[in-house]
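Q: Structure tokens for this one, please.
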Amino acid sequence: MSGELVLSLFPGIGLFDRAFEEEGFTVVRGPDVLWGGDVRRFSSPAGVFDGVIGGPPCQPFSRLVHMVRANGYEPRHHNLIPEFERIVAEADPSWFVMEEVPEAPKPHVQGYAVVQVKLNNRWIGGEQDRCRVFSFGTTNGTMLHPDVAIFESQRWAPAVTASTGGGKINRKKDQRFSEALRLQGLPPDFLSEAPFTATGKHHVVGNGVPLPLGRAIARAVRRAMGLPLLDHAEAGEVA
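A: Here is the predicted structure, written as tokens:
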């Protein structure tokens, strides 16, 4: 497999990173507020990374932002897509992928042609109904073609969100988190050693890209860039 080196921006708990790692990429994580970092103070060296991935905070573009403002509040994070664009321009990679909600603006980086793919987790065989837009930037406008399932799953589940949905009984919170892990494609012991509260664990998992969805994008990037695909039949598919 190729050792394509990828810079991850806004990595959060690292679900998008994990998907790319499972597809044979080597991922270097940039700063994130979750770990006390500030992307606005980060700069990338040019010509080091083959690709850049990341999902700037979606709160400013969420469908719920109007409800937040109607209640007298502002989204916790402002539009940080310009920071993503700035760092991509600095890094000068062969390609980049930005993940966002469908309502977010398309990124623009000089020298890159950007194509967008709207993909629902159910379209690749998942149970969770979660839709995202992936902006794929290259110098020549290469298209991105993720594999999709012939049929959607007969089971349906709403999108996992950062909210635990309330509940004062710890057992109910544990059940919600276990279900969130399953729907996000993660093992039941994910974050078992992390010193987060139950609410904190649910929050960081809910903010992440579903692992099956991330894998589909990572595979599509390998194909688009002419890289050999990882043989999961021999390597063993990660649950």
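A few notes: The beta strands are 5-9, 26-29, 51-54, 95-100, 113-120, 131-138. The helical segments are 15-22, 65-70, 81-91, 170-183, 198-206, 211-224, 232-235.
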